From TrEMBL:
CDD domains xref list: SDR_a2 (cd05245)
Organism of derivation: Pseudonocardia spirodelae
Name of the protein described by the UniProt record: SDR family oxidoreductase
Residue span(s) of domain NAD(P)-binding: 7-126
Residue ranges crossing the lipid bilayer per the database entry: none
Entry-linked SUPFAM superfamilies: NAD(P)-binding Rossmann-fold domains
Length: 539
């Protein structure tokens, strides 16, 4: 079987692709070997985002955009099954974007002779599209567009997906853990049929293998877990599984989805741009109206995963630092995304720098471990209050703030979200260097691009070089202002740079000198999640 996976850098696609290749931790979540060799092609806008995933060497990674007909046509060539797993959730015009992407993909798949398209949409009540939230209406429209494209299409419709790192689960987790008493809107009493991400992946793999007339399969199928719960019950059951006290909830009629999204933006890591469409979907009761798919894909012998077990599995992954993909892995919309120019003077305008360096008696390997472990629960090694205040300010205006944390407590990959930063380039000490790279092979480099709300473009670079008797830590902050607000912003924060950036340099090197050499970060992680050692991970 030959598969094309779109959205392979996203939450579901990033879990499906490795399982199609046999790289997942579950031995039963693989394609049927009787169908012959498996080939997986991933269409991504930035192939470097998959440079560090452990399964990339076994997949064909191609550059392209679902809004570019030429690249989509090329990606569909010589493919049996196409997975459409992209949804522009935080794009202000997501409905038009997704509609166009579906039209382009459907036309390209039909021209290439693709045998089947599989789309993961949203479970919704049987009502007119005008009565649905914009988010759900868009999902319905994309499904209908694909069903009309001329290629047999299976549209799977799921409600809340329970899994470590999913936006829905993170919203539920943080609301329940942080608020023993909460005022909630009336929708917390609506019924929901959540489903474990493991069962979603099983359906995605198995529906591609169904042998049945196209006319019977070109349709929607509802998929859900074995239990129907209200959101209130989901919070109480989560609290019980997590060992928390019973949560007190006071429903009120005045909290609109927009107000609820503002509240979630403050309490959880999920920003308002993503929280609002999720909440608007919960306003509807989302329960399966049929289970026709069981005719071709019966439940496993042990049954579908129940709610409590799904929560246990997700929490164990989080506790053990084994989260494969997170909602934050997708690039934030409406933020500058250009890579840092190799020579900042190229900008043709003012470029502000804060550059610092300090020798360290620790080995380069030990110092690099501290650098690669920065952010998340460990923080930023200086003036925590200043970092927190800046994060709160960003959240207040709809930004991502500091609360996204890290995908993994020890390991970073190109493209990872790291609090309000995005990993733009990662060169491990002793790793291979790409053509044209002038970095010393023994030097380690971590370059982060800011995704917070800021009037300009900002980067933070941290590098480690060996020296006799230890190592050298080098740090560079770069800011390219945009208009007068950019200049005012830089000069308003410049007086604090000595405390913030100077403190980072001192405390990072002190931490490396103080702590003993731990085992390499990758060795603490299971092999199916481990990145390949000593390679260039440049964006």
């Amino acid at each position: 079987m030959r598969y094309l996976v779109t959205g392979a850098t996203g939450y579901i696609g990033g879990r499906l692709a490795p399982r199609l290749l046999g790289h997942g931790p579950e031995p039963d979540l693989v394609p049927d070997p009787a169908r012959g060799p498996v080939r997986v092609r991933c269409l991504v806008r930035d192939p470097d985002k998959l440079a560090d995933v452990p399964w990339a060497a076994d997949a064909e990674i191609v550059r392209g955009d679902l809004l570019d007909p030429d690249s989509v046509r090329a990606a569909c060539e010589d493919v049996d099954v196409v997975y459409f797993l992209v949804h522009s959730l935080s794009d202000s015009d997501f409905a038009a974007t997704d509609r166009r992407a579906a039209l382009i993909l459907g036309e390209a798949a039909r021209a290439a002779g693709v045998k089947r398209i599989v789309y993961l949409g949203g479970l919704h009540p049987d009502t007119d599209a005008g009565a649905l939230s914009a988010h759900l209406a868009s999902r319905v429209e994309v499904g209908e567009t694909l069903l009309r494209c001329g290629v047999p299409t299976i549209v799977l419709q799921a409600a809340v997906i329970l899994g470590s790192g999913s936006a829905s689960f993170e919203m539920l987790r943080y609301l329940t853990q942080r608020l023993p008493l909460m005022v909630t809107p009336r929708w917390v009493r609506n019924r929901i049929q959540p489903i474990a991400v493991r069962d979603v992946l099983r359906y995605l793999i198995r529906v591609a293998e169904i042998d049945a007339p196209d006319a019977e399969l070109n349709r929607t199928f509802d998929i859900g877990g074995p239990e129907i719960l209200t959101y209130f019950e989901m919070m109480q059951r989560y609290a019980r599984v997590a060992g928390l006290s019973r949560r007190r909830v006071l429903p009120v009629p005045v909290l609109t989805p927009s107000l609820s999204a503002h509240w979630i933006n403050v309490v959880t890591p999920v920003p308002k741009s993503i929280a609002k469409p999720l909440i608007e979907s919960l306003v509807h009761e989302v329960v399966c109206s049929e289970d026709d798919l069981k005719r071709w894909v019966p439940d496993p012998p042990e049954g579908l995963i129940g709610y409590d077990r799904a929560v246990e599995l997700a929490l164990s992954r989080i506790t053990d630092g084994e989260v494969e993909t997170r909602w934050s892995g997708a690039t934030v919309q409406n933020v500058p995304s250009d890579p840092l120019p190799s020579d900042p003077e190229w900008a043709g305008g003012d470029v502000y720098l804060d550059e610092r360096e300090q020798p360290c008696s620790a080995s380069p390997e030990r110092l690099w471990t501290v650098v690669e472990g920065i952010g998340g629960e460990r923080g930023w090694y200086s003036f925590p209050l200043a970092w927190s205040v800046r994060g709160w300010m960003d959240r207040a205006v709809g930004g991502v703030g500091l609360s996204r944390g890290r995908r993994d407590p020890h390991d970073l990959r190109t493209g990872d979200a790291l609090d309000w930063w995005r990993v733009e380039r990662l060169l491990e000490p002793g790793g291979a260097r790409p053509p044209g790279c002038d970095r010393d092979p023994e030097e380690g480099l971590l370059r982060l691009r800011a995704e917070m709300k800021v009037p300009g473009r900002a980067w933070l670079e941290m590098s480690v070089r060996p020296r006799p008797g230890g190592s050298t830590y080098h740090q560079r902050a770069v800011f390219i202002p945009h208009g007068l607000p950019g200049y005012l912003y830089w000069w308003s924060v410049a007086p604090f740079h000595g405390i913030v950036f100077g403190g980072m340099v001192r405390n990072i090197t002190r931490t490396a000198e103080r702590d003993g050499d731990p085992p390499a970060a990758a060795s603490r992680r299971p092999s199916w999640l481990r990145s390949r050692p000593h390679r260039d991970r440049a964006a």
